[in-house]
Write a structure and sequence with these properties.
The strands form three sheets. A five-stranded mixed β-sheet has the order 1-10-9-2-8, with helices on one face. β9 and β10 form a beta hairpin. It is an alpha/beta fold. Helix content is 31%, strand content 21%. It is globular and about 55 Å long.
Length: 234
């Protein structure tokens, strides 16, 4: 049985963990329940009505958060020549080819996103067993395999996130920090909802968004009413 901190248990006692809330109300609750001494990340967990065992029901892609994530994102780029210079000028933290592959093989993985030009995928492909389990393997669907590396670097630095369902059909996305204004978190959350709705698999049956839970890094989960998961427009 997991033992929680006194701060966590105090937070749980301050609200009904079973109650379903509209999105903005849930965000306000998450902000009020966060009590760590650092700026906690706000996470949104979506349980989707998909069968993750079926390839045609996989949910994967990227979403750009209008207010960013509040986190400094480290980007590594596999590129050579002009593409290498373009990536560096755009703000990539690590740029290389064979030398970068050697760093990865040596266990140097101090980055959050890996981008590669298509001609480098032969080199990157050999790193699949290292990058894959960490969710770092470049993929055309996520915009991380591209010749336009400069724009890709800028996008991910500005708050573009990659998402994918896990083996249970859940999608987890960071939507910002506790110190964000509630409306900024709401707009980031709305961008994720719109993106997940856009990529709903045609073969998914029944209710698609089955549950939504918001939480801060150290705080309890606050449930959003799935029938009201999409914020109403003013």
């Amino acid at each position: 049985m997991t033992k929680h901190s006194k701060r966590y248990e105090d937070a749980v006692r301050r609200f009904d963990p079973v109650e379903l809330h509209p999105p903005l109300e849930a965000i306000d609750l998450v902000k009020s329940l966060a009590s760590a001494k650092f700026d906690e990340t706000v996470d949104a967990a979506f349980r989707l009505g998909i069968d993750p065992r079926k390839a045609d029901q996989a949910v994967r892609g990227t979403v750009s958060l209008p207010h960013g994530t509040g986190k400094s994102v480290r980007v590594a780029v596999f590129a050579e020549g002009d593409s290498s210079r373009e990536a560096s000028e755009a703000g990539a933290d690590v740029v290389g080819s064979g030398d970068l592959a050697e760093q990865v093989q040596a266990g140097n993985l101090d980055f959050d996103v890996v981008i590669a030009t298509p001609d480098m995928m032969g080199t990157v492909g050999k790193l699949g067993k290292i990058l894959g389990p960490r969710g770092l393997m470049p993929n055309p669907k996520s915009g991380t395999v591209t010749f336009d590396v400069g724009q890709a670097v800028k996008d991910f630095k500005a708050g573009k996130l990659e998402y994918r369902n896990d083996r249970h059909g859940n999608v987890h996305v960071h939507i910002g920090k506790v110190n964000f204004e509630a409306n900024a978190l709401l707009e980031n959350y709305s961008a994720v909802i719109e993106e997940l709705t856009r990529v709903r698999p045609a073969s998914a049956k029944g209710r698609y968004i089955q549950s939504v839970t918001l939480s801060s890094t150290m705080g309890p989960g606050v449930k959003i009413d799935p029938t009201r998961a999409k914020p109403e427009k003013a």
